[in-house]
TrEMBL record:
<dbReference type="InterPro" id="IPR051541">
    <property type="entry name" value="PTS_SugarTrans_NitroReg"/>
</dbReference>
<dbReference type="InterPro" id="IPR002178">
    <property type="entry name" value="PTS_EIIA_type-2_dom"/>
</dbReference>
<keyword id="KW-0762">Sugar transport</keyword>
<protein>
    <submittedName>
        <fullName>PTS sugar transporter subunit IIA</fullName>
    </submittedName>
</protein>
<keyword id="KW-0813">Transport</keyword>
<dbReference type="InterPro" id="IPR016152">
    <property type="entry name" value="PTrfase/Anion_transptr"/>
</dbReference>
<feature type="domain" description="PTS EIIA type-2">
    <location>
        <begin position="4"/>
        <end position="151"/>
    </location>
</feature>
<dbReference type="Pfam" id="PF00359">
    <property type="entry name" value="PTS_EIIA_2"/>
</dbReference>
């Protein structure tokens, strides 16, 4: 199911941004230009991240899973994003703490019923250090898609 949502045109590798707001602005513009979100997406994702942080500290690595609201999503998607340098994200389990994150899975799902199932699937993958490392090392969007397809097909 996950590979149905990961869009190759929404895989952005080695972006250079200096903070969370800049990342969300850049991504929101890209998503909007490609018809995946509507105008309210940026404001929503910034506010949501402030109130319900999505940074995960998994001991050996960190990941964030920001997500939009169905109201602002035109077409469901999952965007995979890596950064050249980590940025500060608030921790999901403790908003007073920040962690450095350079791998993001941005969820834009317009069907709320599948949201939790997809989130659980992503969390299952990101708990695997080897998977996270392979996403960070990917050089092309095709490589990310191949690794995801292999994983989903049960390959290592």
């Amino acid at each position: 199911m996950l590979k149905d949502y990961v869009k190759e045109e929404l895989i952005f590798l080695n972006l250079t941004v200096s903070n969370r707001a800049e990342l969300f602005k850049k991504l929101s513009t890209l998503f909007l230009d490609k018809g995946y979100v509507n105008e309210g997406f940026y404001d929503f994702i910034v506010e949501r991240e402030e109130n319900y942080p999505t940074g995960l500290d998994l001991e050996t690595h960190t990941v964030a899973i920001p997500h939009g609201d169905p109201e602002y999503i035109e077409q469901s998607f999952i965007s995979v994003v890596t950064l050249t340098r980590p940025i500060k994200m608030k921790k999901m389990e403790n908003a007073d703490e920040e962690i450095d994150v350079d791998l993001f899975f941005v969820l834009g799902l317009n069907d709320g019923t599948q949201h939790l199932q997809i989130l659980k699937q992503i969390i299952g993958y990101i708990q695997q250090e080897k998977f996270v490392q392979s996403m960070k090392e990917a050089k092309t969007s095709e490589e990310v898609m191949e690794k995801l397809s292999g994983l989903l097909a049960g390959k290592k």
